[in-house]
Amino acid sequence: MNSWPRLRVADWTDTRDTLHMWTQIVGKIRMAYAPPVNHWWHVTLYVSARGMGTGLIPYGENGFDLEFDFLDHRLHVRTTDGRSREVALAPKSVAEFYRETLGALAELGIEPRIHPVPNEVENAIPFAEDEQHCAYDGEAARLFWRQLLQAQRVFSVFRSEFTGKASPVHFFWGAMDLAYTRFSGRVAPPHPGGAPNCPPWVMQEGYSHELASFGFWPGGGEEGAFYAYAYPEPAGYAERNAASYDQALRECLLPYETVADSPDPDETLLTFLRSTAAAAAELADWPGPSA
């Protein structure tokens, strides 16, 4: 099997959009119970050995977790007292998945209160009413997970090279991206917001400190794209990264297919990550070592 699997965005758009909503539901369940952590690190999902999940969520003196299993195509709901339930991952609407997931939790005595409407999407259909998104191609979901595995692996190497404050490598369900962020330690100017169906204060918390962020999402290229950006963007950042800088997005982009087709995919991606990180740190004169 090719360790850098190929999955054209056009071939799984309907499944991607449905899965995006499912991950928002699961992420909001984690957010309902997890103690707040700076920059919304308490709401993310994590790539796992079988898919992606919440990790352990505190619940009273015990806990539970939810995990998307893209090998057996199940959402596992497990408690620390040994009980569990499953929700099948199959062609079904967001509304049906929402009902089944909350039902599985209720059978375990867990009834989270969440804001039942998606964030960071233009057409924010309440979960309970969303019959529009109903596709699930299990093979596409598995391939996407394997893309995330490769991105996670290389991002983890890149993360190890930085000794300052840095985020985990984690999956943000708002924009459906695997992300990793470095911080200079300095406070940033208030973020102007602008993400659809997302209050400005949410973005202001996420971008409260000067940063350089990197990630992968299933867009921006024929097979998805890696990205890098700085906030606030220092003068000269676009010019320094002219070969990859997208003026519309104000981000640097590296198509997934460029990485997968290269003789050394790991080095191709690491070169992109290291060069954009150096540009952010050097042009903004970050204190201390930039790597």
UniProtKB/TrEMBL annotation:
It comes from the Bacteria. This is Ava_C0101 and related proteins. It comes from Paractinoplanes bogorensis.
